[in-house]
Design a protein that fits this description.
Layout: H1 9-19, H2 22-29, H3 36-47, E1 65-67, E2 70-72, E3 76-78, H4 91-102, E4 107-108, H5 116-122, E5 128-132, H6 137-149, E6 154-158, H7 168-172, H8 179-190, H9 194-202, H10 222-232, H11 240-248, E7 252-258, H12 261-269, E8 274-277, H13 291-302, E9 307-311, H14 317-325, E10 330-333, H15 335-367
Parallel strand pairs: 3-10, 4-5, 5-6, 6-7, 7-8, 8-9, 9-10
Antiparallel strand pairs: 1-2
Length: 383
């Protein structure tokens, strides 16, 4: 069901599962450990109930807002997703086109397949850039300079990945593995996916980490790259490093991966323009709380000192509304935009972004609110 005429994020997830080799689908779909936090992100949002109001003038409902100082058609941005260009042909370039058409920001991952220059050429508006803190500070400076030259003015600094999480689906599928067994596992998953082999593996070349090929030995080989990841993610990073980062970045700075009110206070103290309440989509610490459950306390602590965004579990326009009601200024979506792109290409992503906006507008209408800025905790049904 839902495959001939996909309507929801889960419909596109099914299409993506049909098209992608299993190791790629599981890389996007999976999470750490037993995937309890991944499930909680979705379930805790779904459990929230909305107050329906009637006989309110809702003739002019407006979903527009600003995120990081940019005008947006709705309070949503595409989150950074590593290796998105493996899920669809030149995936990041396709995604930025769809985001531009929908009037929402796109965030390019440090470990995206398409390089900064290619994404800039595909875009008509500035896009955001995501950064990991790695040991080679000269590489970071070079990436920041290239991002600025490409027109990026918002940096999303991911701070919840000192080391990669234990993602058992990836282990079972041979990602990061070496030798004949790992090669055979991947080959067995590739052969039943001729569409992916033709459209992405052959026509989508080069399949390497576009932002790192010049600086990182082995960046053209995925197995070698994972070895580099394990050695280069910096476990020594502290709040003091934000000061260093600020000396090399002149634009907006969003800290992604905050899940604790005390850390939110620290983010404000170091001068972050915004924070993203996130548990990395459940991909790091299984058993961590859901993002939405931590949002109200963090939003209260931050107040108007910085923008608060939410990442994790958003699957519908109603979910966007719920996040705003509990204190977020906007949301980031990760898995859904990759499912849509993998399952139906740029047209699918455009369709679903349109659906999310219509769902948000419908939710606002039925809740009796006409402006995004007026959505608040009173719109959650506590009875």
């Amino acid at each position: 069901m839902g495959l001939s005429n996909p309507a929801t994020a889960l419909d596109y997830r099914r299409l993506a599962q049909r098209r992608l080799p299993r190791f790629l689908f599981d890389y996007i779909d999976g999470a750490a450990g037993d995937e309890l936090t991944l499930a909680a992100n979705v379930a805790d949002l779904a459990a929230l109930r909305l107050r329906q109001r009637v006989l309110v003038n809702v003739e002019s409902v407006d979903t527009r807002t600003t995120l990081a100082g940019e005008d947006c058609a709705m309070p949503l941005a595409l989150a950074p997703v590593g290796m998105a260009g493996m899920m669809a042909r030149r995936g990041e370039a396709q995604a930025v086109r769809a985001a531009n058409a929908a009037g929402v920001p796109f965030t390019l991952s440090t470990v995206g397949i398409c390089p900064l220059d290619e994404v800039r050429a595909a875009s008509t508006k500035p896009f955001w850039f995501q950064l990991y803190m790695i040991r080679d500070r000269a590489l970071i400076v070079a990436l920041l300079e290239r991002a600025w030259a490409a027109g990026c003015r918002t940096l999303v600094f991911t701070i919840d990945l000192p080391i990669p999480g234990m993602r058992h689906r990836d282990t079972r599928n041979g990602i990061g593995g070496k030798g004949l067994r790992a090669a055979l596992l991947k080959a067995a998953q590739l052969l039943p996916r001729p569409h992916w082999l033709w459209n992405v593996a052959l026509r989508g070349r080069p399949l390497n980490f576009g932002n790192l090929t010049e600086q990182v030995p082995g960046a053209r080989d995925l197995t070698a790259f994972w070895a580099w990841v394990n050695s280069q993610f910096d476990t020594r990073v502290t709040w003091r490093d934000i000061d260093w980062l600020r000396t090399h970045w002149k634009g907006k700075l969003l800290l992604k991966g905050i899940l604790d009110a005390q850390d939110a206070r620290s983010a404000v103290k170091v001068g972050a323009d915004g924070i993203v309440v996130s548990n990395h989509g459940g991909r790091q610490l299984d058993g961590a709380a859901s993002s939405i459950s931590k949002l109200p306390a963090i939003a209260q602590v931050v107040g108007t000192q910085a923008e608060v965004l939410l990442d994790g579990g958003v699957r519908s326009g109603a979910d966007i509304f719920k996040a705003l009601a509990l204190g977020a200024r906007g949301v980031l979506i990760g898995r859904p935009w990759v499912w849509e792109l993998a399952g139906a290409g740029v047209a699918g992503l455009r369709d679903l972004l349109g659906t999310l906006q219509r769902e948000l507008k419908l939710t606002m209408t039925m809740a009796g609110v006409t402006r995004v800025a007026d959505i608040n905790a009173s719109h959650i049904d506590r009875t």
